[in-house]
Structure formats: structure tokens, C-alpha cells
# Entry
Amino acid sequence: MAVDSPKLQDVLKQIRTGAMQLPDFQRDWKWDDQRIRELIATITLDYPLGVVMTLETGGKSPFRARALTGAETTEPVEPDLLLLDGQQRLTSLFQALYMDVPVRTTDARGNELHRWYYIDIAKAVAAPADRDDAIVSVPPERRVRATSARTVELDLRDTESECRAKHFPLHIVFDTDRVHAWMREFVKLDDENWSLWPSFDQAVLQNVHSFLIPMIRLEASTTPDAVCSVFERVNTNGVPLNVFELLTATYAGNRDYEGQYSDYYRLPEVWQDIKKELATTYPVFGQLEVNIENGLTSVDFLQAVALVYTWERKQQNSRNASVSCKRRDLLNLPLPDFDRLAPQLRDAFAWVGKFLDQQCIVRSTDLPYRTQLVPLAAVRAILGDRTDDPEILERITRWYWCGVLGEMYSGSTESRFPRDVEQLIDWAKSAGQTPDTVVEAVFLEDRLDTLSTRNSAAYKGIYALLVKQQAVDWYYSHEPLSPGTLQQNAVDIRQVFPKNWCSRNKIPTARANSIVNKTMLSHRASRSLVGAPSAYLPVLAGESGTRDEWFDDIVATHLIDPTALRADDFDSYYTDRSRQLLDLVKSAMGKGTVFREPTER
# Structure
């Protein structure tokens, strides 16, 4: 790493020639008019600007590069430096001080503007402390009208008008010939300007010409992981950079791929095609109408690819290889290997979507853990069709429900991902040691009392299990609930003993809101859940065209004792339903639940 302070003029020239460019992961420039005026004021006063950070390319950029806004060229140029931090400041200065066209900017409300920037000579010389007031921006026609729009308050449409108004055009500040020509017109217009110009030259122009940009230069050997870390630290006020964006720029800059296919690799398009195919077939992967990253994310997909890639390397006895999907592993994914593995992982996630459908988890809002899908897809990609073997599928299903009901994926997952992949593959292939996720998973019996919202994976999991064991809706009672009817009939979680009834009968809030007092029912059925159960059950039986004694059988499919429900006996109902739900959990996890002794107070 080196530190130097080149002149602003030299830096802007590098931007113009393409010697300094942006890595493609940098987002578009977007500074508003006021911030640009304040920035220019800072430069004219020779006040510190703040350090900018660049990465040396060594003649071969590690990322696809692009010019700063306004410096685009017709022919591609290989940059010497990539600008990591300082894009908005340098783009603003380049457009305002170096380009001969209006600056593209916005007002305070985000509305697009085009502006020329000037400095009021008299104000700049008279009161340096008020330099912000001396910086003026005007529209493309260079005429500022009064509020009535009839009177021109400031006319700068030609050099003579500029000199008469004593407003110097900042976009010519580095063009010596044009500055001298403008100065001649200025002093010729009024004798007083002969004394004013030297003061302006010393107070403003010399500051701009001598202004230095503190610059940190990272060596070309800096790793992508280090670049990502540095960018995140220096870009504290911007939108965070993620691994996918950095890898996009890396792959797009791959010379071998571009040489072979006469085009650069477009990772975002590859991901969009994969995500659209998955989410269209299996809505559990996200809602495309929200955005492409809703539900399953691009980083999730990269992590799954990295798990498979590092697993392959370990099987090849690569030196010091380990299964991993940390950021550095994602950034070090070779493009040929990603290109080879991406279709395999696409198909693996499609299998995961089918697996979740079999577990009656069909909507993204009902998915307990999105992150648990990453190792599951990796295992499918590695084992292939063997995951469809009934015995292996049974083990995978048990592992999945232990992760959900034991809430094993609620914390850090970077270490759990590779451990689950290796242990699950070993368990599936040879009935080896049981995976840690299965062994360590525990469901405390009193957890039912605290499960009350979708924020918990176990909460979502128990309702999926209710549907899976063929609960029947209380209105559409001709068939059990299924993945297809969940969306068709707007099935959601409803309270069995309604909220108003619980309030009137002084049922403790925790119990009233607990998962024990809720079940999966259609919107149509929920409209009849009014008053006491003894009152609404006959109504629902009549609406569904079912005899009362048969309707009790329908109620029982929700693991509810119909006798206690018809008697409005909340305590008996709660005790019996808790027992049945715990049995459901035990069956899914393949292990018993744990009773916790109440603590003494």
C-alpha cells in the first residue's frame, strides 16, 4: 500500500483518459446539486477533501472496469487504477470542473437536473467564510428567472454576460487558454476589474490549480476478499457491497472467457434466469414481483456452489482443502467451475423445492429457514438421484425437521453449513455417524407456550406438519389440506378460541396467543369463527354440509379434542392439544421432547 497526493487536475485528467476507472461493482453516481456546490466551495478554499482509495491494476484489471459518469469513451481502455472510494466526489468534480457540458444531478427531492456551475467573483473575494454562497448553479440555458418566470435575474448565456455579472464559469478552470481569454474580456469590460482579478486568481484559481487529493493506492496483488473488506469499511455511507456484486465484476473481467465467447460473462443474467425458473415453479423460493432477491438470494446460491466446489476439492485430496462457503471461498470460485456447477445447483434447488412441497411448505412466508436450503441443495448436487432412495430420503427428512423444530439455524450458519453437508452425506451414504444437527436438536415441551408468531421457525414448522398429516379445512371439508389448496383457499393461521372469547373469559394472553390455540384454516372458515366454539362449530358444520358427529372427525384432524372444544373447556383443550402437538414433533424429529422443571421463585 502506498500513499501520495496527486494534484486534482492530474486526477481529473486520468479520469478523462480512462487511466482511472471504476470497478463494475461500484454503483452509479448520485450526488445532488447542493452537495456539489458545497464540494466545489471546499476545493476553492483549499480545505481538506478526504482520502480517496484506489487499486493498482498492474496493467490487468481483476474486475470488469467502467468509466466514471461523463468520461465514457468509444474504445475500451485498460485502466491503471480502479477507484474504490471517492467515486461521488471525483465524479462531481470531473463533471463540474472538467467537462464542457451541463452536469447531470438532482435537486433535494431527487428530481433530475442539468446544471452549469459558476463562482461569483465579488462574493468569493469579499468573504471567503461565505464561500458556499458564492458557488452558483444555473440551468442549461444559463439564465435564471425570477419566481414569476417573466424577469431574468441572472443572464450568463455568453462570455460577455458572464463578465458583466462577474460570474466565472468553473468548467473552464483547467483550460489555461480559455481562462486567459475570459480574463481579457473581464478586465476590458470595466477598469475596476483589473484590481479584482488578481485577488480572485489568488483566492480561488490558484487554490483549485494546486489542490491535492490524498490518495491511498492498494497494490495489484491485493486479494478480492481484501478488496471487499476495504470497500465495506470505507463505504460506510453507501449501500453495502455484497459478494455477488464483487464476483459479478470479477467474472465480467475474465479475459479467457471473453476471448473464447467474444463477450463477457454476465453473472446477474445467469442468476436471474435460474431464480425465475425456480420461483415460478416453486413459490417457496420467493416472490418475483417483489424483487429478484426476495426469498432465495444470489448469495445463497453462491454458497451452495462453493460448498460443492470445496467438497470436490477435498475429495481430490487437495492440499489443506476443507468444505467451506465463507466469503473468501465465494470470491475464489473459478469462473469455469461456477459455470460447470451452476446448472447442477439449479437442478438441486428444484429438487429442494419439490422436497419442501412434500413437507407442505409452499409459500416463502411459510418457510422456516431459508438458510437451511443451502446445505440441502449442496447435498442433493453431490449425491444426485441417491437422495430419492426411500431410506436416504427418510434420513434427510429427519435432519430437516430436527433443524427446523430444534431451531438450529437461528444463529451463525457459516460453520454449520459445511458440517451438515459432510455429516449428512456420510449418514446418507453409509448410515454413519448421526449429524450434529440431529443429535443436538432439542424441543422443550414448554416451548409450545411461547410459540406465538411467524418469527419462529418451529412455529412455521408445526403448522406445515399439521398440513402434512392431512388436516381438513373446516369449510372446504371434501378433502385434506394440500400444497395446492393452501394458496387457492387462502389458508392461514387462525385462533381456535377467538381473541374476544379469550378476553371475556380471562384466558392468560400467553396461552390465548400460543400455537396451541391456533390452527391452519381457510379465510372462508375463519369468517365463522365468532364467539364460543360451542356456538361456531354447528355453524361451520352446516356451512360445510356435514353432520355434527362427522364434523367432529374433521376437527380431530387438527389434533384437537372435539369434546373439549364443544364444551368450551379451554384448559382441557389446551392440555390435550399440547400433548398431541408434542407427539407430532417427536415423530418428525425421531426423538423425544424434553420436559423442563419450572424454576423456583
The mean pLDDT is 91. The radius of gyration is 34 Å.
